Amino acid sequence: MKIGELAKKFNCTVETIRYYEKNGLIPASARDSVNNYRHYQQRHIDQLTFVRHCRALAMSHAEILELLKARRDPCANCHSIDQIIDEHLQHVSVRIAELQLLEDQLHTLRQQCKTPGSHKDCGIIQDLDRPLEKTVRAEQDISHVSGSH
Amino acid sequence: MKIGELAKKFNCTVETIRYYEKNGLIPASARDSVNNYRHYQQRHIDQLTFVRHCRALAMSHAEILELLKARRDPCANCHSIDQIIDEHLQHVSVRIAELQLLEDQLHTLRQQCKTPGSHKDCGIIQDLDRPLEKTVRAEQDISHVSGSH
DNA sequence: AAACACCCTGAAGCCACTACAGGGTCAAGG
DNA sequence: CCTTGACCCTGTAGTGGCTTCAGGGTGTTT
What's the pTM value of the predicted model, to 2 decimals? Predict the structure, then answer.
């Protein structure tokens, strides 16, 4: 199977698959000796299934690499796996709480403008002109589950 | 006021302030003619207050630049401002919903391993080896409030 | 033979910073 | 006068998980 076919199968781009290979998320494929095209087999499909499932759960590449290691190692026990999932879950929960705080604050801010007119009287701008309170701490750097854009 | 003092006042780094200046989030400061040090006045403090407040609400630089434009323009009305806030709020809400779906899925996944032992029997790895269902769509590209790491 | 789809590599761009290299400036203490 | 250490400057590279682009080669169809 060529890379374009694989990409279609997994609903991603060929660039993503090449990027995964470069970063060790999937093993390097065999190459066509004539044109150097990548050719994939079942084991690539299996591992890519695993990786895409992890990515859909928003795991980082580092986390996935750890899980892959545990998956390969027949002597590993569940503990390390459980720990990765637990920690990731924790990060997701923390990020949800942060964003909910943000959501509340944005709702409150939005209430400041009920009567659209000249912004001289706009409560939103006036509000934003005030410094943030110390309770406002929903910034990215707190959580490993980060970002809002 | 020198940059270090300003950074301390706003609990950020001097690099962040220089970065804001480069990107137009704060106006360029006056410079000391002798040593080229930046010197800040009240208007910088005011604008940085606004910007940091917006950032604490996880707005992007693009959004903040739009708000700054509306803030400067005395003819602007609230409509554009409201729209920016509404859209941002929408993104945050969407992201929360995505992460809550993720949280559920991770809880379910974690339940697969209740009896730590050899991972041959580990339900987590077995689960991740299965392709993702079509309902699983909590990926970054859906929301502008993105990321999980 | 031309058109078009597909493949290759390697580098740059995205975001909002952060970190680092390599230098200049300034005030205090010995 | 000299050193130490804190602060400032510019410019570049790194972060993560891709995406996009430049510049080419290959394969199939018309």
Answer: 0.86
